[in-house]
Amino acid sequence: MNNLCADIGFRSVNHIGEELCGDHIDVVEQSDDSCVVVLADGLGSGVKASILSTLTSKIISTMLAAGLSIEDCVETIAATLPVCSVRGVAYSTFTIIHLVNNEEADIIQYDNPLLIMLRGGRNYDYPRTEMNIGGKKIYRSRVHLRENDVFIAMSDGCIHAGVGMSLNFGWDRREIIDFMEGIVDVGYTAKTLATMLLEECNKLYNYRPGDDTTVCAVRIRRREPMNMLFGPPSNRDDCNKMMALFFAKEGKHIVCGGSTSAMVSEYLRKPLRAKLDFTDPEIPPTAEIDGVDLVTEGVITVNKVLTYAKDYLEDNRSYEHWSFKKDGASQIAQLLFEEATDINFYVGRAINPAHQNPNLPITFSIKMNLVSELSDCLRRMGKRIKVSYF
Questions:
Q1: Greatest mean pLDDT among 71-80, 155-164, 243-252
Q2: Cα separation of 128 and 208, whole Å?
Q3: CATH homologous superfamily for 4-222?
């Protein structure tokens, strides 16, 4: 067993004028270290393409995750998908990345642009074996994983970007490789890599995509634990137990809340130094305690982090706001979204007397809901989450 994990991120833009995307991505986890990622591109665009791609990705990901062969998957798809009355065919192209124990990638490709693999920041020409299943030419590859390997799967909307507009013949695979080689070494997350490539495609379309366009990035990285403390325990006798468990954990430590930081300061016997610089007028300033990586205010700051998390899971538009700023919410977002792979929450159930003012919109239930919603968002980002209540 190695200490690697997969960071998976994807984004799509719809064919201009369409409400639904004809591409679909499914990620099915088999275990903590194995998963199946499927990018399917339905024939045409709109509702019909969306149905084709959704069925294809669901069928393949579910069957492969259950241990069935690719031959069985393809035959099932051929027998299941409805036939197009215009073209007389029924299929959705697909790219499959099956990560096994975070040690090996089994890559299966049918009619999508060939997957790009970057190793050491440069294009890696991985081996491909041609197969014929049900009259369909399918490529299969097996690659032993290394830290910082990056896989880029895409629908054909990427290589068609700019056809007859900003480019005569579209954006070919070699040019996409050159673009990705220029940014991959910076250390961006998979979601950010997918966002940057998709934005470039959208720009080549002059923001009027002539095809559904989807990018899925998978980055192999080392596990990075993170710990976040939010609120004192309901029973003050549990303070030392809570603190001992929190600081015994490997990784960086984030403390949120005024009462919480005062409790940590007392436990560590280190002074709490408040900062007065409001880098963002909407977010209370941070503080410092020796032995703690980040000290922030509580509910207001964490609520902003939740807003960023929801946006990150959608179109990632807020990235340019929080990725470089130094306010408490931005720093937490950087640590949780970009650095962390395994996050331990230590949540105190004590009721803050300051929140009992009927003129304040902060209640105990809001605080608990914040933790629940943020945990759910982080799980959807692919993080391992553990929440402990005190």
A1: 243-252
A2: 34
A3: PPM-type phosphatase domain (3.60.40.10)
